[in-house]
Design brief:
Low-confidence stretches: none
CATH class: Alpha Beta
Number of helices: 11
Structural class: alpha/beta
Number of strands: 10
Mean pLDDT: 96
Number of domains: 1
Strand order of the largest sheet: 1-2-3-6-7-8-9-10
CATH topology: TIM Barrel
Shape: globular
């Protein structure tokens, strides 16, 4: 992070959604690496497979690497679970500066994911690697509960688990996001970029996130699906690091 703020370029959507998010350009991981390098992102987020296959290109770009340690497809129904697919040691050997993991809060499988995170955290912190949690409230336990309340619950659990950064899907108004950031204590909160939306609306949302105290963004589709990803990146960075 730079001055406590960050913008990460996320590219774990291939496993989570399949290639439906991609076109002829952005289906190529090298295109993403180029954007991350030219846009001077604080890090790029890859699953293990891309981190391995494109490791030379990543190192050459000098863009810091975050390796996502778990994942799932969108094909299985029921309460979601995202199991560990890569180890901290593998991420470390690939040159990662941090590791990431998704927890589906409220899923019947929540405890299994908590347990994996605790083991990952112990090993990562021994190696000096920060742990970033994608904390997404989903599953049968979330039915009937407000998304804004679940968002704050998610950030609080990140603090209780002892992780370093929590990534959440932001919901609601400025005060809702402020409360979620406050609930996180000393854990940094980064907001998910979400699905592709109009640029003006995106920038408006980013201003609200930063005004609420979020430390930045972990953004993917809104950048690499953009016609001018570098220009859009500069606009977003101007908001995150505004004086």
């Amino acid at each position: 992070m730079t001055k406590g703020k960050a913008i990460f370029l996320a590219y774990d959507q291939g496993m989570e959604h399949g290639p439906t998010d991609f076109n002829d350009k952005n289906v190529d991981p090298q295109y993403i690496i180029d954007i991350a390098q030219k846009g001077k992102f604080n890090a790029v987020i890859f699953q293990k497979g891309i981190a391995e296959k494109y490791n030379d290109e990543i190192k050459k770009s000098k863009v810091p690497l975050i390796v996502k340690l778990n994942g799932k497809s969108s094909l299985v129904g029921g309460d979601p679970i995202s199991s560990q697919l890569a180890t901290v040691e593998e991420a470390y050997n690939l040159g990662a500066v941090a590791v990431g993991y998704t927890i589906y809060l409220g899923s019947n499988h929540e405890s299994e994911m908590f347990s994996e995170v605790e083991n990952i955290q112990r090993e990562a912190h021994k190696r000096g690697l920060p742990v970033i949690i994608w904390m997404y409230p989903r599953g049968s336990g979330t039915k009937g509960k407000k998304k804004t309340e679940l968002m704050a619950y998610a950030t609080r659990i990140a603090l209780e688990l002892g992780v370093d950064i929590v990534k959440v899907q932001p919901f609601g108004k400025l005060e809702d996001i402020k409360w979620a950031v406050k609930a996180a204590g000393k854990v940094k909160v980064v907001c998910a970029g979400g699905s592709k939306i109009d640029e003006k609306e995106l920038l408006k949302q980013v201003k609200m996130y930063i005004a609420a105290g979020a430390s930045g963004l972990a953004i993917g589709r809104n950048i690499w699906q953009s016609k001018n990803p570098i220009k859009l990146t500069e606009k977003i960075k101007g908001i995150i690091w505004a004086k």
